[in-house]
Amino acid sequence: MSAILIDNLCKSFGQQPVLRNVSLQIEHGEFIAVLGPSGCGKTTLLRTIAGFEIPDSGTITVGERCYSAPGQHLPPEQRELSVVFQNYALWPHMSVAENIEYSLKVKGMDRANRRIRVDAALDLVGLDGMGERRPADLSGGQRQRVALARCLVTRPQLVLLDEPLANLDVHLRAAMEEEFTRFHHHAGATLLYITHDQHEAMALADRIVVMQAGQVMQFATPQELYRQPACEMVARFIDDGRVVPVGDIEPDGQGSAWVTLFGLRVKLRASHTQPVLPKGKICLHASDLQRVAHDAPGFDGEVRRVIYRGGYSQLEIEPLGDPQCRLTLMQSDAAPPRIGERIKLAATDGWVIPH
Ligand SMILES: Nc1ncnc2c1ncn2[C@@H]1O[C@H](COP(=O)(O)OP(=O)(O)OP(=O)(O)O)[C@@H](O)[C@H]1O
């Protein structure tokens, strides 16, 4: 049985549909990231699972329990899950230990057992010995750890996290990513993690739900999203993939297809069910392109922009005869080409976007 089963969930605010037929099947212990541009409905999805919003239609089942169905709404406090918000929501007048302990107290657990649980939770999030401090005396990262410990102490089977790192600086975020991985490993809980940061999602999640305008565009592993985007939106969204037109798509039914890319016949990866088509689009990442010698097979492009990224340069290339198109190429060479220079490129990999 799945940990979470969401079937055809719809939710509108007034006239605006915010969740459109969202269906997801999430397994026990999975770390799921929900990724998408601002306003695509991520938080609404989380709030609907938590019970803070009532869906217009569709069902949510967690384990064996129905949380939402037409005419049926389990109140938030009866849902067996824990939510970690972006703003931590710690009680300022309580110490760190009291913040963490509170939910156990409400459940009527005795003092000795509470102490053991709180110490274990503090230890797990790396806040050993900080139990007596007030939240105001902690850094942003430490406060987020308290919020995590508070969630962990109840040993939830399902944890919903709404952009928990959004308020932290880039270094702290990286440190906390490690913390989340450890947390997930130890807690063994199913995690649903909302973020608009694809690098965070790729680094943390077993599978990622990519949403746009209330719809699930693809639900897959980070590797699949990168290598086999299901549509143009996912192709562009993940790691700045470039969508490029191609002609004469001739699939072999074995996971490859010949296509005409800038006048050149090349063999790229394709779905096993890819049909023969006179034209289509492919996804090219920077790592799919290679600079080649001028007399080697390839296509010409003009360097439009050179961005130094520390140790390598990112080149923005305009393929000759296609001024609408921009390709990216990374070059580790200390002497990158100049803007306006003409270079030759070959596609060493690429994915035919399913029609
Ligand atoms: N209570 C509400 N009443 C009316 N509209 C709402 C309400 N909550 C959310 N919305 C709208 O629903 C849409 C989706 O919002 P939601 O917060 O779910 O998106 P999101 O993907 O989490 O965005 P962000 O990444 O910016 O947090 C937005 O257009 C938002 O303005």
Automatic annotation (TrEMBL):
Alphabetized UniProt keyword annotations: ATP-binding, Nucleotide-binding, Transport
Q: Upper lineage ranks?
A: Bacteria, Pseudomonadati, Pseudomonadota, Gammaproteobacteria, Enterobacterales
In the record, the note on similarity to other proteins reads:
Belongs to the ABC transporter superfamily. Drug exporter-2 (TC 3.A.1.117) family.
> What is the name listed in the Swiss-Prot or TrEMBL entry for this protein?
Spermidine/putrescine ABC transporter ATP-binding protein
The species this protein belongs to is Pantoea coffeiphila
Q: Which GO terms describe its molecular function?
A: ATP binding; ATP hydrolysis activity
- Record bears the keyword Nucleotide-binding: yes
Name one process (GO BP) from the record.
quaternary ammonium group transport
Q: Which residues does the UniProt record annotate as the domain ABC transporter?
A: 4-238
